Amino acid sequence: MPHFAHVSLILAPDRSKLSKRHGATSVGQYREMGYLPEAMNNYLALLGWGDGTENEFFTLDKLVERFTIERVNKSGAVFDSTKLRWMNGQHLRARPSEEVTKLIGERWKTSGFLTVSEGPFVEELISLLKDGIDLITDADKVLSNLLSYPLHSTLQSEEAESAIQDNLPEFCASFLAAYDSGDLVGALEEGQAGWKNWVKGLGKSTKRKGKSLFMPLRLLLTGKLHGPDIGAAVVLLYQAGTTGVIAPEVSFVTIDERVKMLREINWETLSKDHVVKETASTV
């Protein structure tokens, strides 16, 4: 005969009894939200139980091997949705790479971002972005962020102040001259190796290196001050604009279009605006 036992109540963050008002309550809802079965098993097993170590990542087989009724706690356990999301990310990245690629690639095609669900472009895209994906549904947001080009809003932000004051207009002119020569496009055709060589040459010609070189480059090419590896990102952005893998419905700004936008910036007015903001903030 099997033996049954009750574990303690699962509590909400406010330590009240967990109920519908605290969010999703069925397995089906969590599946629709992008949670994996193995992550749910792992997390639920740790609500009121532990194996006596700091380890929190368990496969189902390992849970069966390590579980003992003696280590079940009597006090209620708090359901932490942030912890569950983190754990789902661990299990997602623990799956075979080809399986993760298939899941995310199909997601992007179904969501209308890509015209393909597999191939070298998709594989490199996932390799670049996977650390920011804890749920399959997160894939849409991270790809949308990579493809976006919020140049003007970033330039108007206070965070961009230091980059603008570091002779960004002059650096932009050097960048545009390098682009007009055809060297950048030729480098991007060669992939990341070509990009690295091109950046090295630009650094020498502008007498910049490290942050003073890569920060303005990231800003001009991606429209952002932060993001994944700049080399891998720019190569993928170039490919996205030349291979037809981005669905027509996506408002994607190609590298050529980004360069056109850079030519239209009134750097003098922008610099004056930042000076006014800085003066106002000190008054």
Provide a descriptive summary of the structure in words.
- There is one protein chain.
- 20% of the residues are buried.
- By secondary structure, the chain is an all-alpha fold.
- It has three domains: 10-89, Orthogonal Bundle (Glutamyl-tRNA Synthetase, domain 2); 97-138, no CATH class; 151-282.
- The chain is 59% helix and 1% strand.
- Helix 2 (37-45) crosses helix 4 (81-94), helix 6 runs antiparallel to helix 14 and helix 11 runs antiparallel to helix 12.
- The model is unreliable at 278-283 (pLDDT under 50).
- The N and C termini lie far apart (79 Å).
Q: What about the largest sheet? A: 2 strands, parallel
Instruction: Work out the helicity level.
Output: 55-70%
Tally of contiguous helical segments: 16
Shape: elongated
Q: What is the strand tally?
A: 2
**Helix-and-strand structural type:** mainly alpha
Beta-strand portion reads under 5%
Mean pLDDT across all amino acids: 89
Spans of at least 5 consecutive residues with low confidence: 278-283
Order of helices and strands: EHHHEHHHHHHHHHHHHH
Q: How many domains would you count in the coordinates?
A: 3
Radius of gyration: 25 Å
Distance between the termini: 79 Å
Strand order of the largest sheet: 1-2
